[in-house]
Amino acid sequence: MLNESVVKTSSFHSVIGESSVIAPNSEKKTRNIVSDLLLTALIDAFSILVIFLLMSFSSTGELLMMGKNMELPKASADMLDRNPVVKLDSGKLFLEDKEVTADGLVQALLDLRKNFQESRPGEEFPAILTVQADRRAKYEQLSGIVQASAHAGFADIKFAVVMK
Amino acid sequence: MRKRHKHLEFEINLIPAIDLLSVCICFLLLTAVWLHVGALNVKQAVGGQPASETAKKPTVWAQINAQGDVMLDVRDARVPAKLAKAKISGKDGKLDLEGIKNIAMQLKTAEPSLTTVLIQPQAATVYEDIIDVMDQFKKQGLIDLGVSPL
After folding, report:
1. pTM to 2 decimals?
2. Do B38 and A143 touch (CB under 8 A)?
3. What number is the ipTM of this complex?
4. pLDDT in tens, A27-48
5. Which H helix or E strand runs over A7?
6. Contact across the interface for B11 and A5, Cβ inside 8 Å
7. In a domain, B84, yes or no
8. Among A37, A109, B105, B123, which is most buried by a count of CB atoms within 10 Å?
């Protein structure tokens, strides 16, 4: 029976041939070096792992790149949509990963709006800005973003947070 | 004639199943999102419309200072005087989230049409405190949140 084992048909077959089956009470006195693996338990564990990973898999929403020193605040929040992202990282401002100065942020946001209207004529500009900042940042650093978004006509701001 | 016995015992070759599951696990491990990032929606507290043209609706103005104190000023709403001007003092420089939650709950009970909260942080106010205050109000049904620039 064991000769018909799955181990025999596995990759072990070609290397160690007949010794890949366990036969402790057989008349054959040769010492076996490979035991028959109990694969069912392994497949059970793998299946549970796959189900868990599938549940934590997300194909919707927006992904944000975070710096090493950046920690987002925690709050119960809604799904993050795709919008222009202003990032405050180590005192520097980034609009869509391009560094901008605090004074140049309004112009950069206006350019963004202009580019959108040129590339998609007739379509309404969403005018929503996502703000990504470290939880320990002071409001004096963020206030500039709020003001700039108001000046550039971005009525809504979405603060990126880690969902509780 | 010799009756042939059908061989009922057989073993399934599990190696392809293990291969498939291993590939699945590797792919899912690489693509899984461990940190779910969401968004807290906030509107501009200071708009371009003149105050005289703006329809008056019950609003909570919440000032937050760097010591974790929250001063509430409820306008255009019929709420008890104790709630209309409330101060929730911070504990060891941190926000008293439980106190904010209780006040927000009492405000919502006293004035169910109250949905707007405008946050007025100071320059030294920590970003996390602003988010925590907004989160507490949002949980109590005050969903129209705004933040004013300095």
Report:
1. 0.73
2. no
3. 0.75
4. 555 566 666 667 788 889 999 9
5. helix A6-9
6. yes
7. yes
8. A109
